[in-house]
Structure formats: structure tokens, C-alpha cells
Input
Amino acid sequence: MSDIKTRSLLGAAVLLCPLAAFAQVGSLSTALDGGMAKGDRAVKLSFRSFNENEASVYGNLALAYGFSDDVQFVLRASAAERTDVGTTRSGGSDVEFQAVWRKRNIYLAVGVAQPSTPAQDKAAFTYTVGVNGQDGTNSVFFGVSSVTSKDVTLLAAAFAYRMGFAEGWSFDSSAMFMIRGDNTANVSGVLESEPVFNFGLRYRFDARQSFFLSAGNSLGDTTGFSLSHRIQKGFGVGAGLEVKF
Output
């Protein structure tokens, strides 16, 4: 991608940063990572803990494989114990497999997911498409992200930004603004549409190992859970570790 295009995207991202604080970005992480070399593998483990209305812990596992320099495969899983919040039941699990393709500044991820939550249990189609760019330790993504099934369709405008600020350190950010679908429910069970924000701090030990602290109102790292707002207002906090080999 040319320096002019990359700097234009990064400049737009800086203008939008107040909308998205700085963050670990769930399913949008691969849009910022610059891809994988053929044969590379990666494992990411993380969790996010919520209190008050949604008192639960969501665990996340992601496995990635570089099929070629342009294509990678990603398997993600997120899960939490099912609990009752007023008349709304929360928790459950989501498993997703995606193929990710990137060329120049184009990013496309398509896949299938099998949720098992109080809201849905039908197989779903997922996709994220947009433009991304990198300039040194900074990277940015603009696009749309969606999960659709017989039960529900969620579509959101998606934004993610990573800014390096010291040796090994970076801020990550993401924001999703709903275009279609209700991505949460209140304690009375009424469906609602709310924007999703994530923010955090990442430290890279070396080219293959990184650790992050995060906060956000999305439930987990699959596309469906990344688009799902916690019950009521507030953020959850968490941490994670990613290893490439």
C-alpha cells in the first residue's frame, strides 16, 4: 500500500480516536496485524470479566494459520456460564471459522459460526470487509462487520486503530456502530441497539509474543460476540496473551 494512502487512513483514524478510546479489538485484531507468512501459526488466549448486571467471565481462544502470504485461516471460540439478568438470560458460547484474505489495502474475512446462546442457536454466516493500512507500528482499519442467521442479522460500521508509542508498546482501539439489528437486551428483555467500544494496552515482548490488558463492552472475540453489547451500560476488563510460532 502506498505511503500516501496509508497516511491518509491513519490521519482519518486519529480524527476518529475520540469515538473509540484505545483497545484490544476482538475479531478485528487480524485486520490490524499485517497478516501472517505462509506456514506461520498463532494462539491467543484471553478473558473479559463483567460485574453488576452481567456478572460473568467470557473466555476466548483463537487459533490462526498462514495458508499463504495473502490468506490465513482463523478458528475462534468464546464462552461464558449462562446466568439470568432480570428476565434476560446471558452467557453461552460461539465458535467461528473464518478465511481471511488481504491484498494491498483490501481486507476480507468470511466464515461460519455456530452460536449456542439464549438469543440464538442457528448456524450463522460472518464477514468483515474494508480497507486497512500500516505505517511502522501504526495500523488502521475501516469497514463493515456482520453476522447473519435465520434468527438474527447484525451489521455494523467498524473502525479499528493501533498506535505504537514506545518500544514494544501500543494502544489498540475499536468501535462498532450498528447499521442493522439489535445487539443487546435490557434487564426487562427488551431488545436494543448500542455501539460497541473496546480499548486497552498491548506489550510485544518480541516479534512472536505479546500481552495485553483490555476493557470494553463487547462480550467476546468471535464476530458475533464482538458485535454483542453487554447487558446495560458499563465495561468489562480483561487480559490476554498471544504467541506466534
The longest strand covers residues 88-103. The longest helix spans residues 3-20.
